[in-house]
Request: fold
Amino acid sequence: MLFGSSAAVCGAVVALAVSVSVARCEADGVHSSAVVDEASGDAIVGAASMYNPFKPGRQEGGPNTASGERYDPSVWAAAIKTSLRQKFGGVQFGARPKYAVVEAVGKKVIVKINDVGPLVPGRIIDLNERTMRHFDPSLELGVISGVKVRPLAGDYWIPGPVG
Reply:
């Protein structure tokens, strides 16, 4: 009986330690890879590019996103290919934003999916400027191939790098 009680107490302490650790990471705005992996759906692999409707000479739609938010180059956001809209929970005007984890060049980031578009063939996601700079700080690549994008379950993710 004593062994059973000790094991239960030990298990409770471990569970508490893990939940405090995860909560601390999320409070700091950084999700752990384990939490993100647990909530992720199947990966879609393709190429990513950057979009910014405010740069001259671009044909990338207007300043408002499909969700109704104004495009903001300083947040962690992206537009998915129109044909993937339903896989990401149906990005719609006025609806709560959807989230995804984007993985490339050895880095992971959670982005808010607030827009959709008819992207160039082979591309699955258009990243806004801040997100693209995370993967390509100088913005010299233009297109990143081999990008994995996985939808995240739930509506309350904190966008940003995954630690």
